[in-house]
Design goal:
The protein has 414 residues and is mostly beta strands. The chain has 2 domains: 52 residues, no CATH class; 287 residues, Clam (outer membrane lipoprotein receptor (LolB), chain A), CATH 2.50.20.10. The chain contains 5 helices and 18 strands. The chain has a 16-stranded mixed beta sheet that branches. It has a two-stranded antiparallel sheet with strand order 11-12.
Length: 414
């Protein structure tokens, strides 16, 4: 069975090893022979996985992923305006930008809540398209791909837009949608045209709205709240995992655990050893996977500042007892984290790899948005993983509000 704890021998050796006082230099490859020396610079689960020879980690030079100047301007203009009352899920007087730009403090009892709101309102573009978008279900013991799905995905900001007209909000938004998320299965044929539509509402105290279109039945039905935590189409991912956390802030208790200088999966797409798979239109090549079971993205990692936060579900029947996130301090995107089952045992480990937008597709240059390139969700208990390869376009002009209407599900499903 795949070990859930570091081997006893490994634990016994650690005190005898000299830990590095400096992070690994660019070009360093962390492997079983040297990872213990750099354990303070990476998450403990990564230390375990590398130490057991599951994969190697290549370090690259740190560079800025500077936020968009308009987002920075909005953050500065409205600094100190937003506030948190005692009611859960309520943010007062938020206008635009990062709600709480000051560095978090362990002395602040609301630091975790503030980081959660910053995570929600981080600038990920006013619109996005991911197509094609490949998901592979992999047996980690054998590396066999058990099933592959291809998707088309879109996002659209309805409120707090930064650069795409109309700014700051789309008109005729009676439901006060903050962000729309749409996902359509393109293949395989048995679930083709299965679609998911989610409206993340501005008011966090209201239940998010979601719909599922079943292609074989040609009907739309409401997405029950409980289904957000079910396995999505048999993968190791649930709808609540989308975009790092696709749920209401009020449904979690957020705790700030401290700031760490660690290696995070940030890189330049065009400097990777990419796979031979191309998009077929512009010869875009996707990120490859390697290591044990081919469950690990073949990317590079930068030494960056991260905020460590914990999210504990308020619902006792939730399949998770907690989530642990490493949030990049500059961009506020979730880079990797641990998920614990309802019994409190480590269950899954997730990695989301981000490319610098200026070293990706031409359309992404100058957007100041980290480009989601590859994701893995590893079920450590079942020795299984779901890997994602993405061709992401930021601020695409093809996304329309009408694409995120319920009627659009029926139209596209015909």
């Amino acid at each position: 069975m795949f070990p859930l704890k570091i081997h006893c021998l490994w634990l016994c050796l650690l005190p005898c090893l000299a830990f590095a006082t400096q992070p690994p230099a660019p070009g360093t490859v962390l492997n079983p022979s040297n990872v213990a020396s750099y354990a303070e610079f990476i998450d403990e689960t990564l230390v375990q996985l590398i130490g057991e020879g599951k994969f190697t980690l290549e370090v690259t030079a740190t560079e800025s992923f500077a936020i968009h100047p308009e987002f920075a301007k909005a953050t500065q203009a409205h600094a100190g305006t937003a506030s948190l009352p005692d009611e859960p899920g309520v943010l007062l007087n938020y206008v635009s930008g990062r709600p709480f730009p000051e560095p978090p403090s362990l002395d602040d009892p609301r630091a975790g809540d503030k980081l959660a709101w910053n995570l929600r309102y981080t600038y990920a573009g006013d619109a996005g398209k991911v197509e094609p978008f490949f998901w592979q279900y992999r047996n980690m013991k054998t590396g066999k791909i058990e099933r592959e799905l291809s998707f088309a995905a879109m996002t659209l900001r309805f409120k707090h837009r930064i650069v795409m007209d109309p700014v700051p909000d789309l008109p005729n938004n009676q439901s006060r949608i903050f962000n729309g998320l749409y996902l359509q299965v393109l293949d395989p044929s048995d679930i083709r045209n299965t679609q998911v539509l989610i409206h993340r509402l501005e008011d966090d105290t209201r239940q998010e709205e979601g719909w599922l279109y079943i292609g074989t039945q040609r009907r739309v039905r409401r997405l029950p709240t409980g289904q957000n935590t079910d396995s999505f189409l048999g993968s190791d991912i649930m709808i609540e995992d989308f975009l790092g956390y696709n749920g209401r802030i009020m449904d979690m208790e957020w705790r700030y655990l401290g700031t760490r200088e660690v290696l995070l999966p940030f890189f330049r797409h065009n400097e990777l050893d990419l796979s031979n798979r191309t998009s077929g239109t512009d010869e875009y090549r996707f990120v490859d996977f390697f290591g044990h079971g081919n469950c690990f993205p073949k990317i590079k990692w930068q030494f960056r500042t991260a905020y460590l936060i914990e999210a504990v579900p308020m619902w006792d029947q939730h399949p998770l007892s907690k989530r642990l996130y490493y949030i990049d301090a500059e961009t506020f995107v979730p880079a990797y984290g641990r998920l614990y089952d309802n019994a409190g045992k480590l269950w899954k480990f997730a990695v989301a790899g981000y490319s610098h937008p200026d070293h990706h597709l031409a359309i992404n240059k100058g957007t100041h948005v980290p480009v989601l390139d590859a994701v893995t969700m590893i079920d450590l208990q079942a020795e299984h993983c779901t890997t994602l390869q993405a061709r992401t376009e930021i601020n695409t002009t093809t996304n329309k509000a009408s694409d995120f209407a319920v009627q659009a599900l029926r139209t596209k499903g015909r």
